[in-house]
Amino acid sequence: MILRDCHSERLKNLFKAIRFIIKVGFDRHDTKVCFLICYLFFISISFSLFSQVQYPQNYFRSPIDTVIKLNGNFGELRSNHFHTGLDIATGNHEGMKVYAVADGYVSRIKVSPYVYGKSLQIRHSNGYISVYGHLRGFNDTIAKYVKAAQYANKSFEVELNPRAGEFPVKKGDLIAFSGNTGSSQGPHLHFEIRDTTTEIANNPLLFDFDVKDNERPVIYGLTIYPVDETGMVDGLTSSKKIKIIRAKGNYKIAETPIVNGNIGFGIEAYDSENNSNHHNGVYSIELLLDSNRHYFLKMDKIPFTESRYINSHIDYPEKLKSGKDIHRLFVEPNNRLGIYKDVVSRGIINFSDNKEHEIIIRAKDYFGNTSVLKFKVKGRVGDSKKGSLKKEFDGKGNAFFDCRKENKYQSQDFLIDLPANVLYGDLNFQYSVSDSLNNTFSGVHHVLKKNIPVHDYYDMSIKVKKDSKPIQDKLLIVNTSDGIRNVKDCIYDNNCVRCKVRVFGDFKIAVDTVPPVIKPFNIQNNKNLSLQKSIKILIDDNLSGIKTYSSTIDGNWILMEYEPKKKMLFYDFDGSVAPGKHIFSLEVTDERGNTTKYQAIFFR
Predict the structure, then answer these.
(1) 67: closest CA among 214, 272, 211, 172?
(2) CB of 124 within 8 A of CB of 102?
């Protein structure tokens, strides 16, 4: 067992204090007091050491039998979430053997078209769970168990929780095969280690997996932000991107920015391992102001309940605009991420003098490889603009929203209700409505801007402008800039359409009366399929999205797997279809209840 989370700075300060006490004690010839105080300090140090998390070393083996190379690491910045595991390369192929990393038992199996795809979890006796995702399939025993459950439930999607003794495994047992299922964008093995009690994801590298990395992280972008109305950079109230110069692993800039008021910094950085071109995430970032730590984060563990705070951690507007991932080295009021370990004044620095200040930013990977960006800024007095957020409701589409409280806004045709803590910071709410040229059910309701992130779903209601009785169940709210993404649970209620929303932007009521599209890929009526291994069907929907599908052969339900990223359903012939004539039937329904059916006779 080793310690990975000891606060070295704290220990240094404790030892300095001990040396000082010893010196004073001996100078005053009061050795009893000296040694008593030293004893108390050593007790404090011991408590500090052993109160930290201890991670088992050499307990887990690799989940694969080749050298571990990473396509992604823990804490990496992803869309709407931090990556909570290791993406282990499989040579861009599916079917690599996956092994149990330690003794235990299979505690959960999940099959889904989304997220982890086909995945399983193993519970171990040391207090941790190992997770294996995006699998192509399971070993024979587990595969039979899963298939039986799918047929029993008549559903491709299942989540199973076997009993403790039902599927015991030994370290090194074959459990599955790597794949590309779920939300994976390419073949690899997603691997996690979670705490058994809390299910919080821990950085697998803490457990001494053999990954070779002597490469320093790369820092390739610096942005300086005026955090509020008081801040300015080189006389402007907008953020400024500054070119970085690299020299022998260290970084600098060619200018001395002039800053005043409340200022924050942000960097773009990535890490890669030996002989790899993948741009992975950094393990820790530290910012020092005049040699004093002002901000520090470390990617040791991330609760899934905190992962969406990534939209507060990064420069979210810049992400939407350019796709760039910028770590903002300051923390918004309602950002509750636990990765921040030592942050002063939320990382915000107030420059209110005419002095030069040195900024040092260190980016490290897990193995201690370090890159340093060092530069100076010049403070300035008296140029800061004064101002504060408006804190009253004016009845004209503007209101002040306190991020820690519930916030509502209502007009004649529109209502939103934001629970407390779904905003990352206070803001001036802005709303307006305009006519929709090609829609008579509602106008277009403009709710703030889409580049303002929202942490969780809130309620939205839009009034229907005309009689819609024949098609009430076909109405839904759409985000005109992003389709229906982040809009769900639309229902008609009292001449309004209500839904759950997790973005801001422009919204209107739309009607979906168009059924899903079914396109046979390798089947047609009266075709002989005796040489085929599968039936493949392409399915799609124009608006509300696929909700359910069901397929049969000769009236008996069959298991068709769904790959949304390919828009494909497929059924693998497993020997249960006898030679001769058969009828294949498929029914697909979208979220508004529109249904399409397809039927074909085939021969085996």
Answers:
(1) 211
(2) yes
CA-derived radius of gyration, the chain: 29
Give the residues across from 497 on adjacent strands: 462, 492
- On whether the CB atoms of residues 268 and 219 are closer than 8 A, the answer is yes
For residue 35, the model assigns a pLDDT of 56
116 contacts 110 by C-beta, under 8 angstroms:
yes
Residue 146 pLDDT exceeds 60: yes
| CATH of range 70-207; options 3.30.870.10, 1.10.10.10, 2.70.70.10, 3.90.1150.10 | 2.70.70.10
Residue pair 436/443 in contact by the 8 Å Cβ criterion? yes
Q: Is the model's pLDDT at 433 over the cut of 80?
A: yes
User: What integer pLDDT is reported at residue 7 of this predicted model?
Assistant: 41
Report the phi/psi class of residue 320: left, alpha or beta, with left for phi > 0 and alpha for psi in -120 to 50: alpha
Pull the structure tokens for residue 575: 């020997």
Q: What is the pLDDT of residue 163?
A: 94
Residue 549: which H helix or E strand, with range? strand 546-553
Q: Would you state the pLDDT for residue 456? A: 96
CATH dotted code for 398-511: 2.60.220.30
Contacts of 111 (CB under 8 A, 6+ apart): 117, 118, 119, 146, 150, 156, 157, 158, 159
Instruction: Scan for tokens 């995430």, then name that residue.
Output: 281
Its pTM stands at: 0.88
* Segment holding 36, helix H or strand E: helix 31-50
Domain coordinates of the chain in residue numbers?
Answer: 2-52, 70-207, 218-379, 398-511, 517-603
Task: Read off the DSSP letter of residue 345.
Answer: G
Beta bridge partners of 177: 97, 137
Helix axis angle for 8-27 and 31-50, nearest 10°, is 170
Q: How many helices (H) and strands (E) in the chain?
A: 5, 47
What's residue 54's pLDDT? 84
